[in-house]
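Researcher: Structure prediction, please.
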Amino acid sequence: MNRVVRFHETGGPEVLQLEELPVPAPGPGEVLIRVKALGLNRAESMFRLGQYGVDPVLPSSIGYEAAGVVEGLGQGVTGLDLGDAVSVVPSFAMTEYGVHGEVVLAPAHAVVVHPARLSFEEAASVWMPFITAYGGLVDLADIQSGDTVLVSASSSSVGLAAMQIAHRVGARAIALTRTEAKKQQLLDAGADAVIATAEEDVPTRVAELTGGQGARVIFDPVGGEALADLVEAAAHGAHIILYGVLDRAPAPLNVGDVLFKHLTIRGYELFEITTDDRRRAEAVAFVTDGLASGELTPAIDSVFPLEEVVEAHRYLEGGGQVGKIVITVPGD
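Model: Predicted structure follows.
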């Protein structure tokens, strides 16, 4: 039998169960993966709660990221062999595939042979954060050497990935975090400067750090009332990329700043990149090259065994992590 993470009702982490199901057979265009490690994301938490925008079909599987070994190939799958070490790019709906389990199916277009230098735990930590950051910063905002990038929720796996991508193209990354509690960890992770948003005036500090110019790119998953400060801190012609809504409070907006600074405020989802074959291939190539060179390195905060999946979700929702939460799956 095969243990799979599922839930029969929406709710907190306690609704998750490890259920024994038959090992599936790969259909046309599908890959069967024996999983070694899972990556946990805020998306899974929101999906489990019924707040993700796509309602789960109950009982529901869950999970976007996994790394493991190819154990079966469906008809028409090319470019992969049995035994390949692979990881999964989030490019499908969790109502179609959920990859948190011991042996799972994934669509072939989502399965990537990852660089050999990565452990399975690292490989399970790559695609959601790095492609999310790549899509917002490189594909949409076209960051350039010398740009200043403000990164909100900077201690998240996406925030840390965004700072690494900014550095890879020669830009400067300013980390935004609520208090100074994570300041040293963020500096150690590569932030060029850290602003504690609950303790400092964000526009004033950004002006000080940029010689009064402001930030040309702002990468934000929060929204809410803090958006007003980000608009004020933006440079003329800046791009504000909104990729989440952690704060659902109405966002005040200085329309004059937007107008006279010629700002672009853009809502963005990872799936704009990963469901487009050309853009997904470009993103995977960019990230793979960075991983192979060591310029990009997944940051892992903590590791839980599969049996503690509920505790892993609780830890995720506590918000204390700096980097990715990974779940390991025992071998045969």
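Model: The longest strand covers residues 30-40.
Researcher: Thanks, that helps.
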